[in-house]
Design goal:
312 residues, 0% strand
């Protein structure tokens, strides 16, 4: 009986040894104590947790919202499916702990996460910039805009003062701005704007009279005809643009204009008697034309040579 019992124990010991060797080869018993496998298991847990929290950081959420939604989550998921080990390691890097420090895995996914955050920030900046660039509402700071809008709408037909809005804007910028809080009648934009606003509430001949006073000549209300003429003449007809057909000084311009006979008509852009006659209104008409096109020709008329001829 001793020999069979000894043989039994020997076979049992051998079997135990074989089982232990097999378990060691398969890693069954060592899984709980092997530091490498334990670390790998920890990485897997971190990766699984990252998948749930990838969308939760503010920057990742912003990127997901602005870049079409869920982009960051899809990227994290794609890493987890390429290689199980790499997925666990990269997944651990994608998340941030409570202190906002990256977890202790590799650095590749850290870079990917940074890219998503940067994209989100860029999206926000583009959105804000677009809003600011597109926000152009509000009144214009240029009083000539208001003046020319009203001149175009109120002064038509025989009361028309400018060929078009472009000419109105061009000539308006040659006049002093003036003070719209003052009631003084002078050669200014403010004075002309005041009278064109009155035209809106006028009727018949009253509208025409207001338009003339608001027009380029001022019609004796907003400065004199010659003040209006020389404001434009000194800027448009210069030695560079018109050769000899210019005045050397504003004083020379005013003294020459003041010596002209008074006009027997009122200023209008449609009256042929305005553009051909020995008076200040003819000169205003042609210097306004010179401001828009061909100053060499029209400055000659504004100087009193042909059409606005001062002498035979």
């Amino acid at each position: 009986m001793a020999r069979p019992r000894a043989r039994y124990w020997a076979l049992g010991a051998c079997a135990a040894t074989l089982v232990g060797a097999c378990n060691q080869m398969l890693g069954i018993d060592d899984a709980s104590i092997d530091a490498r496998l334990n670390a790998a298991g920890h990485g897997a847990g971190a990766g699984a947790g990252t998948g749930a929290t990838a969308g939760t950081p503010t920057t990742a959420g912003s990127a997901s919202t602005l870049q079409g939604g869920g982009g960051s989550g899809a990227a994290a998921g794609s890493h987890n499916h390429v290689d199980p080990g790499a997925g666990r390691n990269e997944g651990g890097n994608a998340g941030m702990d409570d202190s906002h420090e990256p977890s202790t895995g590799g650095t590749d996914t850290q870079s990917t996460g940074g890219t998503h955050a940067t994209s989100g920030s860029a999206g926000k900046m583009s959105s804000n910039s677009g809003g600011e660039a597109g926000d152009t509402s509000g009144p214009s700071a240029d009083p000539c805009d208001d003046y020319c809008d009203q001149m175009q709408s109120e002064c038509t037909g025989e009361a028309e003062q400018y060929r078009d809005r472009a000419q109105c804007m061009k000539i308006c910028h040659f006049f002093p701005l003036g003070d719209d809080e003052e009631e003084d009648d002078d050669n200014s934009v403010a004075c002309r704007l005041k009278y064109v606003k009155k035209a809106h509430y006028g009727l018949g001949a009253e509208v025409t009279a207001y338009c003339r006073e608001a027009g380029p000549s001022g019609d004796g209300k907003c400065g004199t005809d010659c003040e209006a003429f020389c404001s434009v003449m000194m800027e448009v007809c210069t030695e560079e643009t018109a050769g000899p057909n210019h005045f050397e000084s504003a004083a020379e311009c005013l003294s020459t204009c003041d010596a002209l006979p008074p006009a027997e008509v009122h200023y209008s852009n449609t009256d042929p008697a305005v553009s051909d006659g020995n008076h200040a209104l003819c000169r205003i008409f042609h210097v306004n034309s010179a401001a828009m096109a061909d100053p060499e020709e029209h400055c000659e008329h504004a100087m009193g040579i042909t059409l606005c001829q001062a002498t035979p």
